[in-house]
């Protein structure tokens, strides 16, 4: 239990550190806005010797720090929020996966060995478990894959937009499906595949799951890409925001593994 507790504390520290840095950057950004700089003279000789120095200007964080949708700080903060959500999802998924792997390859064989008086099944248990896992994965795949968002679709969705020369506009994440039922189907398929030993790890499915969450949150914040894809006032386009949230979600889902 102690190593797990230490690992969880380290994970929490790694998640909180970017938020603290973003908070400091946001406050610095607010203080540097026009009109919020200090009006104090640069030289003390310019002040009359008999008069006290003028009071420092008071910066109202709520009124002066008004970040708009086109502000890079706002996009950065929202990208951090996406990363936190997907990191929490990845951590929970990792704990569940550890439990299923331990159950199939440790707890069940140990229970069978105890019932058989200390004699394990040996290679026959591996063959039976893999055969049963193949049947389960096959049935789940036939049932869920049509509504899941697998790795090949993730790569195709993002590479098609970049290969067509779409670097600053256009529909980048339009090929991404809705969050439900794509995300649950993807997680169930990945969990079954990894639990029975048919995959080297869940990293790729977690990248896809994080991308789905990032796109869903971007659609909630900014609407669909086709609604408004103009860079008003020199800000970011709706498409670029969607792309940033997609990669932030994919990156957030990866670290737990």
What can you tell me about this protein's structure?
The protein is mostly helical. 65% of the residues lie in helices and 0% in strands. The protein has 8 helices and no strands. Helix 7 (203-222) packs antiparallel against helix 8. The longest helix has 44 residues, at 72-115. The radius of gyration is 26 Å and the shape is elongated.
Keywords:
mainly alpha, 8 helices, disordered N terminus, 257 residues
Per DSSP, the total helix count is 8
Rounded to the nearest angstrom, the distance between the terminal CA atoms is: 19 Å
The proportion of strand residues reads under 5%
Q: How many extended strands?
A: 0
Major β-sheet annotation: none
Give the overall form.
elongated
List the uncertain runs.
1-5, 36-47, 59-70, 165-169
Mean pLDDT: 76
Structural class: mainly alpha
The sequence of SSEs as H and E is HHHHHHHH
Radius of gyration: 26 Å
Write down the oligomeric state: single chain
- Amount of helix: 55-70%
Topology:
Layout lengths: L1 H30 L29 H4 L7 H44 L7 H22 L6 H13 L15 H17 L7 H20 L15 H16 L4
Short recap of the structure:
The chain has 257 residues and is mostly helical.
């Amino acid at each position: 239990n102690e190593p797990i507790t230490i690992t969880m504390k380290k994970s929490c520290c790694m998640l909180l550190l970017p938020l603290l840095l973003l908070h400091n950057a946001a406050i610095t950004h607010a203080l540097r806005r026009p009109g919020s700089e200090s009006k104090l003279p640069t030289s003390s000789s310019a002040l009359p010797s008999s008069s006290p120095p003028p009071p420092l200007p008071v910066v109202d964080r709520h009124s002066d720090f008004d970040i708009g949708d086109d502000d890079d700080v706002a996009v950065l903060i929202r990208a951090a929020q996406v990363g936190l959500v997907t990191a929490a999802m990845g951590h929970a998924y990792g704990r569940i996966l550890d439990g299923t792997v331990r159950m199939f390859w440790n707890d069940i064989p140990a229970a069978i060995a105890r019932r058989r008086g200390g004699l394990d099944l040996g290679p026959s248990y591996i063959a039976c478990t893999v055969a049963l896992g193949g049947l389960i994965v096959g049935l789940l795949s036939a049932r869920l894959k049509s509504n899941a968002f697998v790795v090949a679709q993730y790569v195709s969705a993002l590479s098609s937009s970049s290969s067509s020369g779409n670097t600053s506009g256009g529909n980048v994440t339009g090929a991404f499906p809705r969050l439900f039922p794509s995300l649950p189907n993807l997680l169930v398929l990945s969990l079954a595949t990894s639990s029975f030993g048919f995959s080297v790890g869940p990293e790729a499915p977690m990248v896809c799951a994080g991308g789905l969450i990032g796109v869903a949150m971007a659609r909630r914040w900014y609407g669909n890409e086709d609604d408004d894809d103009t860079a008003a006032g020199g800000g970011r386009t709706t498409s670029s925001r969607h792309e940033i949230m997609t990669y932030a979600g994919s990156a957030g889902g990866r670290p737990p593994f």
